[in-house]
Amino acid sequence: MVDLILEIDANFVETIFLIKEDNIFVQDNVFIEAGLIENTAQTCSSIVGKKYFFDEDGTENENVNVIGFISALKNVKIHSLPKVGDTIITKADLVSKFAGDDYTLCTMSCSSSVEDQILLECEINLFIQKTVSVG
Predict the structure, then answer these.
(1) DSSP letters for 90-122
(2) What is the tens place of the pLDDT at every residue in 26-81?
(3) Domains along the chain?
(4) Opening angle at CA 29, ends 23 and 33, nearest 5
(5) In angstroms, rounded to a whole number, what is the distance separating the alpha carbons of residues 102 and 22?
(6) Is pLDDT of 96 > 90?
(7) Whole-number Cα distances in Å, 19 to 81, 83, 92
(8) CB 3.0-4.6 Å disulfide test: which of 8, 18, 127, 133 passes with 63?
(9) How far apart are CA 40 and CA 91, in angstroms?
(10) What gap in Å lies between CA 7 and CA 39, rounded to an integer?
(11) Which InterPro entries match (predicted)?
């Protein structure tokens, strides 16, 4: 649920997402709370997930899949819910990270907005694991 990564580095990511009418998280023309959280999780996973898809020299790793789970949500504040046709801008800052050989645990501080209106603020913990495809 991310259309485009606007900015990304090792500690920060910013994405945009256009809410369409057929989105699973749209009810009565409103993008519900679970959608905001899923958009935030997918935005956050791009920072830690990219290490599995690309080597340090930028070469893409083939036959790699990544699965991720939200392990905790903290200090969630939902200020407003966007509507169909709105474009969400989501920003996330890396707070902490522990990387194993094929998994990463991280904590990120996040916010999403439409224009100047803040929609969501939270801290999210993610567990990201690499799986290798066969065949």
Answers:
(1) EEEEEEEEEE-SSEEEEEEEEEEEETTEEEEEE
(2) 999 999 999 999 999 999 888 876 655 555 666 666 666 778 889 999 999 999 99
(3) 4-132 (3.10.129.10)
(4) 65
(5) 35
(6) yes
(7) 11, 7, 19
(8) 133
(9) 8
(10) 16
(11) HotDog_dom_sf
